[in-house]
Specification:
A six-stranded mixed β-sheet has the order 6-5-4-3-7-8. A three-stranded antiparallel β-sheet has the order 9-12-13. It has a three-stranded antiparallel β-sheet with strand order 10-11-14, covered by helices on one side. The model has no long low-confidence stretch (mean pLDDT 96). It is an alpha+beta fold. The chain has helices at 24-38, 72-78, 107-110, 117-124, 135-142, 179-188, 192-215, 222-237, 303-322, 329-346, 354-360, 363-366, 423-430, 433-436, 441-445, 476-489; strands at 11-12, 21-22, 47-52, 86-90, 96-99, 128-129, 146-149, 174-175, 241-242, 247-250, 275-280, 282-284, 287-288, 291-296, 412-415, 418-420, 452-454, 457-461, 466-468. A hairpin with a 5-residue loop joins strand 4 (86-90) and strand 5. 35% of the residues lie in helices and 14% in strands. The chain is built from 16 helices and 19 strands.
Length: 493
């Protein structure tokens, strides 16, 4: 990060070729949070928010550090890149205090320069900075009426956020009910400053996907495409981290929704004729992207590949045309299913009445996941199912939605319809008379090793529709033309 002068606020960047992010972004976030808390019934005067940042961890019992990435709530609030910090905010005034760890002298030998407290005050634009070893004494001086601690369930992961803790916290009055719902709701609606970062990381990630489409060839390994993506995002965009484990599925692996994990680590050779499904997103300053491109490795769609791809593309663009504030996200999911089923019927893979297919939830046979999810400091961002908000559906497909909320301006989501040919899912459907009547089994048999197609774009909800953040070739003609031109110009073939 670049330090402040007397008149200029500090900023974060990874060099002149990357986006410059002012720490005012986090000051804005803190102001929004305090405004919500001051308006909240039951939050007394003199309350203080206390957050604990992420801790530096090591691999199991070794002395090898994991690469640190800040805890998302703490990053959203303070923008701190280092580990083992605490942070506090006076709710009445909005004034912020950071508590960095006081590192031993030996740190300077192995890890670099030791900084005084004022270094972090200037670096992050806060009002005060004191060592974390002094946190009890400092808070005693501030005499808060109550410490508001972060504790609540993440409805995507099912995990509970950890409330801040330090020696002596039992001497203060604390509360774990007020903060979590309010800070989560703040994170759901993005500020203009946050949107600027998300546009940037989408641009870098989109260009990285295009780099892969330009350079991929039969015989490459899936993991080489993962490596190329990460290299492009880091070299050109300053993205040290990706938002999630890269999914580089080719051929039948495209039907594995979260392929790329340790048990299936993007290790297949990509064969001529394979359909590729590459789901990857860079992360910049803890803000995420999530993009999936599907295309044939040789740059030319077969008739079957084109039919399936265009079914998914129609579903994607129907949703993009319909989204705006006031629209129900589950309604967008069912819209995408209807569009896709209609196209699959025209392609001869399903038969019968579309309305009856929808009632039977046939769409979930081909798209078992939800249409999309919130994004921000987490790729599956918080606030999907707030207390008192819409409940999760129990129906196939719809129950996989990561939110069932009504859309609002400032939300950032993915639109990611997909069509997959997953053997156990299809076999189960063949045994279900309510589903099997719609399935053209003979036609579907030629797709059993096809894999799948997913088209995933990131969008921001605007006052009258949406802003498309992702920019990659999307139609069949665009993809074929882009890849053909790249092959003509490439020195890799």
């Amino acid at each position: 990060m670049t330090m402040a002068s007397a008149t200029v606020k500090p900023v974060f960047d990874r060099g002149s070729h990357t986006l410059t992010v002012s720490v005012e972004l986090f000051a804005t976030n803190r102001r929004r949070l305090c405004e919500r808390l001051r308006a909240k019934d039951g939050v007394p005067k003199g309350a203080m928010v206390l957050l604990q940042g992420g801790e530096q961890k090591q691999r199991y019992c070794t002395d090898t550090d994991e690469v640190f990435r800040q805890e998302s709530y703490f990053h959203w609030t303070f923008g701190v890149t280092e580990a083992d910090f605490y942070g506090a905010i006076d709710v009445d005034t909005g004034k912020a205090i950071l508590f960095p760890p006081k590192l031993p002298d030996s740190y300077a030998v192995w890890m670099g320069k030791l900084h005084p407290e004022d270094h972090f005050k200037e670096k992050y634009g806060v009002d005060e900075c004191r060592w974390s070893s002094e946190i009890k004494e400092v808070l005693k001086e501030k005499n808060p009426s109550i410490l508001l601690l972060l504790k609540g369930v993440n409805t995507d992961s099912g995990h509970t956020s950890r409330a801040a803790a330090f020696d002596g916290i039992h001497e203060f009055k604390t509360d774990t009910t007020f903060l979590h719902p309010e800070i989560s709701e703040c994170r759901v609606i993005k500020t203009p400053q946050e949107l600027e970062v998300m546009r940037y990381v989408n641009k870098i990630s989109s260009d990285a996907h295009k780099e892969i489409m330009a350079k991929i060839k039969p015989g490459d390994k899936e993991y080489q495409m993962e490596s190329l993506f990460q290299h492009y995002c880091y070299t050109n965009g300053g993205c040290r981290h990706v938002s999630y484990t890269c999914v580089c599925g080719s051929g039948e692996n495209g039907a594995i929704l979260h392929y790329g994990h340790a048990g299936a680590p993007n290790e297949k050779t990509i064969n001529d004729g394979d359909m590729c499904l590459f789901d990857m997103g860079g992360e910049y300053y803890c803000y995420t992207s999530d993009i999936t491109c599907s295309f044939p490795v040789n740059g030319k769609f077969t008739a079957d590949q084109k039919m399936v791809y265009e079914a998914v593309y129609k579903a994607s663009r129907a949703v993009m045309k319909a989204v705006k504030p006031g629209v129900s996200w589950p309604d967008m999911h069912t819209l995408s299913e209807r569009e896709m089923l209609q196209a699959l019927k025209e392609g001869g893979l399903v038969q019968g009445d579309i309305d009856e297919m929808m009632k039977a939830r046939l769409g979930a046979v081909f798209m078992p996941h939800g249409l999309g999810h919130f994004m921000g400091c987490d790729v599956h961002d918080v606030g999907g199912y707030p207390e008192g908000g819409p409940e999760r559906s129990s129906e196939p497909g719809l129950r996989s939605l990561r939110t069932a909320r009504t859309l609002e301006e400032g939300m950032v989501l993915t639109i990611e319809p997909g069509c997959y040919f997953i053997a156990p899912v299809l076999e189960s459907a063949y045994q279900d008379p309510q589903l099997s009547r719609f399935l053209c089994r003979e036609a579907l048999s030629r797709f059993m090793n096809f894999g799948g197609v997913r088209i995933e774009d990131d969008i921001a909800i605007t006052s009258d529709g949406m802003e498309l953040l992702t920019c990659v070739p999307r139609t069949v003609d665009e993809i074929e033309a882009f890849m053909a031109k790249a092959r003509q110009e490439s020195t890799y073939l």
